[in-house]
Amino acid sequence: MVEKQNTGKSKRRELAPLDAVDAIDGPKMKALPTDRHRAFVRALYQVKPGHGANSKAARLAGFGTPNSSNQSIATIASRLAHDERVLEAIAEEDQKRIRASAPRAISALSRLVEDPSHRDHARGIAMVLDRVHPAETVHNVKVQHDTTEEFKDTAKVLKRIAELAEKFSVKLPAPMVIDGHASEVTRQ
User: Fold this and answer.
1) Model pTM?
2) Spatial contact of 88 and 96, defined as CB atoms under 8 Å apart
3) What residues of the chain score a pLDDT lower than 50?
4) Strand pairing category for 181-183 and 176-178
């Protein structure tokens, strides 16, 4: 009897076809140039995450040919995954899926809060209370600007300089800076 030797390479697993989706696409998904681009975004949620996930999603979406090399598909997948339009569609789909999972999350949180023996029972209660009755912080800010006598005297001097300059037709430079403060010279 002859045994077959294991060469270390296993057969490639065939990928399952994409499920038909009846959901209405958002504006970012609709903005993608082709149906294959939209299928790529959807396929990213169906393939197992990890190394090669983008390539598998690209194949599922119909990119490449049956004879395309793995490197060719990887290049196509990389370009798709870094396309700004695709990234925006992925973000849109992420938000849709997160919102859709809210009922399950709320149900799980309710079970946690209702189980006093659960080790995270207190954390769950605190989380619910923080969202239902958020802590409010009130800040009272009082700004008071006192001008010193020197500052008032300087303003009087600058005003007198402006009057004299006007009287003798002398052109003054724009704002003068005194003690780090800009002082506008008013001209009439």
Assistant:
1) 0.55
2) no
3) 1, 185-188
4) antiparallel
- The answer to whether 80 touches 58, Cβ cutoff 8 Å, is yes
Instruction: Return the SS3 of 177.
Output: strand
Q: Crossing angle for the helix pair 70-81 and 53-60, nearest 10 degrees?
A: 90
Query: How many residues make up the chain in this entry?
Result: 188
Question: Angle at CA 96, nearest 5°, toward 90 and 101?
Answer: 125
Per-residue pLDDT of 103-154, as tens digits, reads 998 999 999 999 999 999 999 999 989 888 888 889 999 988 777 888 888 8
Q: Name the residue among 46, 57, 52 with its Cα closest to residue 70.
A: 52
CA distance linking residue 154 with residue 139, whole number of Å: 35
Rounded CA-CA distance 92/95 in Å is 5
CB 42 within 8 A of CB 28: no
